[in-house]
Amino acid sequence: QKEVEQNSGPLSVPEGAIASLNCTYSDRGSQSFFWYRQYSGKSPELIMFIYSNGDKEDGRFTAQLNKASQYVSLLIRDSQPSDSATYLCAVTYSSASKIIFGSGTRLSIRP
Amino acid sequence: EAQVTQNPRYLITVTGKKLTVTCSQNMNHEYMSWYRQDPGLGLRQIYYSMNVEVTDKGDVPEGYKVSRKEKRNFPLILESPSPNQTSLYFCASSLLEVGNEDEQFFGPGTRLTVL
Question: What is the chain A residue with the closest CA to B90?
Answer without folding.
Answer: A43
